[in-house]
């Protein structure tokens, strides 16, 4: 009896294979190209719930490309393919007379989802940070009122919250170009308690802390977020052995000093690339142990919606760790087909 051996490659198309840098061929590895969601998901926050990811963004009117959204919610299984879920809130909080709900930060706390948010207008003399809670990641998030206003906490332009739990205690980091600060929260997370600690200077906003290899990495965005193709937003980082700091950059310069921070990400070098990359979400680690960075940016050729709103699309790039410091390849958004995360 004769036995015929059929080569394995005949069962697969060449598109099923991906060549890794190490030379290993993987089956089924997909690729993607930025942006991963459009037209708008500004100031993103992301959370994983079982095998799905939910992302949340600043209140915006997408105009003819999608209409008005009060804290839009999208979801995905792979960080690449996203679908709209709806809005996180049914109605706007009423503890301020007017303002937008900006830069939501969503975290699973116990068995509920806490969303800290900014309530502000451009040039607002007394913006503040509120808390809304939901039983499901898609909401609805029910408002719990103000955590503090700028006047109450003694920090101008108190927006851009980031929540973190440490040794059973709750903390909030926040600030926008008047210093980044840390405060302890009450057990229910609804009010600030105790004194505040300044972590970084007046050149940063949009704080996010990531823990790795015994360090707390404090990310912040510098420059202008919202000037269309002229935006200068970029991401900087410092690190500390303690949550309360002091945070230093790669050159040993304190983040409290102007001009400090190691560059993680800035605009594309080519003239018609992406500008204003910043306000990154939580870092996501995939099944291969690779870390992924979600943030917003604007295509310099298409930086505004028809109604004039900044077209801040959702972007995804892999973090490279170099001597225990995070960066993105070439320190700029990827624009070509790129290998996707593995889940």
Description:
The protein is mostly beta strands. It has a single domain, classed as Glycosyl hydrolase domain, family 43 (Tachylectin-2, Chain A). Helices cover 1% and strands 44% of the residues. Strands 22, 23, 24, 25 and 26 form a 5-stranded antiparallel beta sheet that branches. It has a 4-stranded antiparallel beta sheet with strand order 4-5-8-9, with no helix packed on it. Strands 10-11-12-13 form a 4-stranded antiparallel beta sheet. A hairpin with a 7-residue loop joins strand 12 and strand 13. The N and C termini lie far apart (44 Å). Keywords: Glycosidase, Hydrolase. This is Family 43 glycosylhydrolase. Pfam families: Glyco_hydro_43.
With helices defined by DSSP (H or I, 4 residues minimum), what is the helix count?
1
Summed up, the domain count is: 1
The average pLDDT score comes to 93
User: What about the largest sheet?
Assistant: 5 strands, antiparallel
- CATH evolutionary superfamily: Glycosyl hydrolase domain, family 43
């Amino acid at each position: 009896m004769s036995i015929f051996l059929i080569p394995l490659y005949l069962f697969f198309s060449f598109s099923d294979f991906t060549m890794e840098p190490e030379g290993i061929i993987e089956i089924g590895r997909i690729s993607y190209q930025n942006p991963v969601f459009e037209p708008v998901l500004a100031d993103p926050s992301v959370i994983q719930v079982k095998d799905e990811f939910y992302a949340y963004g600043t209140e915006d009117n997408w105009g003819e490309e999608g209409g008005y959204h009060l804290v839009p919610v999208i979801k995905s299984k792979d960080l690449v393919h996203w679908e709209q879920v709806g809005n996180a809130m049914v109605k706007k909080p009423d503890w301020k007379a007017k303002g937008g709900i900006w830069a939501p930060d969503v975290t699973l706390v116990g068995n509920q989802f806490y969303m800290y948010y900014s309530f502000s207008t451009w040039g607002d003399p007394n913006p503040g940070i509120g808390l809304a809670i939901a039983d499901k990641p898609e909401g609805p998030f029910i408002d719990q009122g103000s955590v503090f206003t700028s006047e109450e906490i003694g920090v101008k332009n108190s927006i851009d919250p980031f929540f973190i739990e440490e040794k059973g205690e709750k903390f909030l980091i926040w600030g926008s170009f008047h210093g980044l600060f840390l405060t302890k929260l009450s057990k229910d997370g609804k009010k600030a308690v105790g004194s505040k600690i300044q972590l970084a200077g007046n050149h940063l906003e949009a704080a996010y802390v990531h823990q790795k290899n015994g360090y707390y990495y404090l990310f912040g965005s510098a420059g202008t977020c919202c000037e269309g193709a002229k935006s200068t937003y970029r991401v900087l980082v410092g690190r500390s052995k303690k949550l309360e700091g002091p945070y230093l950059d790669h050159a040993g310069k304190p983040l409290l000093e102007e001009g400090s921070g190691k560059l993680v990400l800035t605009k594309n070098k080519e003239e018609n690339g992406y500008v204003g990359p910043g306000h990154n979400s939580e870092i996501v680690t995939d099944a291969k142990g690779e870390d992924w960075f979600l943030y917003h940016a604007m295509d310099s050729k298409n930086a505004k919606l028809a109604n004039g709103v900044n077209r801040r699309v959702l972007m995804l790039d892999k973090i490279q760790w170099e001597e225990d410091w995070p960066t993105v390849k070439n320190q700029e958004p990827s624009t070509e087909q790129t290998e996707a995360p593995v889940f």
